[in-house]
Amino acid sequence: MGTTLLVWPLLGRILAPQSVGQLSAVLAVSSILAPVVTLGTHLHIANRLARDPARAGGPDGRLVRFLLGTLIVVALVSTAGVLVQHDEPVLRTIAVVAATGCSIIGIGVVRGLDRALSYAVLTLWAQFVALLLLTVVAWASGSLDVALASYALALVAGTVLVLPLVRRRDPGRTDEGMTRIGVQSLSLVPHLVLAVATLLLARIIVGFVAGPVGLAGFQYASLLIGGVTTIGASLDAHWSTRAQAAVDERDLRGRLDRNLVRIQLLLLVVALGVVVFVFALLPVWLPPSYDVTTVRAAVIVSLSAGAFQALADNRSAALMWLGRPGFVSVATALGVVAAAVGCVALVLAFGWVAAGAAIALGTATRAAAITVFLRRVGPGLGLDRRAVTVTAACVAALLSALLLTLI
């Protein structure tokens, strides 16, 4: 939330809307492509380490070291290119994609090893400190290229904390090879790409339909939308990884039910706080050149997306425990298709203010599809009554807030 409330408003006052739109596009594309360059290992290895932390000293750790080494070299070379060849979007994207790949691999490792402090530090570093550094450099240099270079270098520097955790400690361990683990993780790539694509794809569509200025406006709305979904996703990423250590279906169901109730209640509080914020503080927070009414409406129509995403992520963890990541990818794809089609139609009809409704539609579609798939392959892993009640109540409360706002 620090990124939402502090960093982007500062960037909006430092950079022109055109530059804010360019920066938003680079970050959106990098978030989609980063799981591809990591081969999905940041989630697969996190789940494997949750079941057996000793794997960090074997082939899992070797794969992490190989990927980090490769991505660090690519990030450093492309960052140098950004500083030499200005206003080159391809080099900008390559640098940020490689650096983001390093960051998410590191976060996945510490999450799998249950290093709570390291997880908090790396997440804060990647999501707030690095962007704050970008803001300071943009203000001092007046150059988006120099700012992006500093951001990429900051993300790469954060991986130093991870390297000692994956050093080789068990040279005799030969149960699985590095290549085999990498191949196993590939089945998660579609899900990982599409899981972050709903909101980011909406930004890209808005950019194509409404142009850079429209994208800059939607960027601020999406920050508040993402503030709700990111909190839920971050908590679920940690708790769902810990749930992979469940010994049987009963144990897994208990863990996931507790996780969902906690996340939904927390997201309800956060979402209601966002409602208060957009009515009371948005005119102060938003840079003067942006329309308050449009940004507020785009946020309000999307708030139920957080509750649907929490449900989908929770059910996805059960499917991954069952070894069925393919169903997760299919359901996520259906959600993204629904969001993309809805976004194009709604933005063309009503302007970018309606893009938030498409995000909610996409997450709801994904949640419904994953629930159906889980009933087929794991009928014993359904939600208990308390989890169902809390989820339904949270969705109803958020839709009621939307209705009251419209009235």
Structural write-up:
By secondary structure, the chain is mainly α. The chain folds into two domains: 1-186, no CATH class; 196-407, no CATH class. Helices cover 81% and strands 0% of the residues. It has 17 helices and no strands. Helix 4 packs antiparallel against helix 5 (89-112). The radius of gyration is 21 Å and the shape is globular. The model has no long low-confidence stretch (mean pLDDT 83).
Low-confidence segments = none
What's the overall geometry? globular
Portion of residues in beta strands equals under 5%
Task: Tell me the count of domains.
Answer: 2
How many β-strand stretches?
A: 0
What structural class do the secondary elements suggest? mainly alpha
Largest sheet: none
Number of helices: 17
SSE arrangement, N to C: HHHHHHHHHHHHHHHHH
Residues in helix, %: over 70%
Termini distance? 29 Å
**Cα-based radius of gyration, to the nearest Å:** 21 Å
Features of the shown structure:
81% helix; single chain; 17 helices; 2 domains; 0% strand; 407 residues; mainly alpha; globular
SSE blueprint:
Layout: H1 2-14, H2 17-37, H3 41-51, H4 59-84, H5 89-112, H6 116-141, H7 144-157, H8 178-185, H9 189-195, H10 197-243, H11 249-280, H12 282-285, H13 292-300, H14 305-321, H15 325-350, H16 355-377, H17 385-406
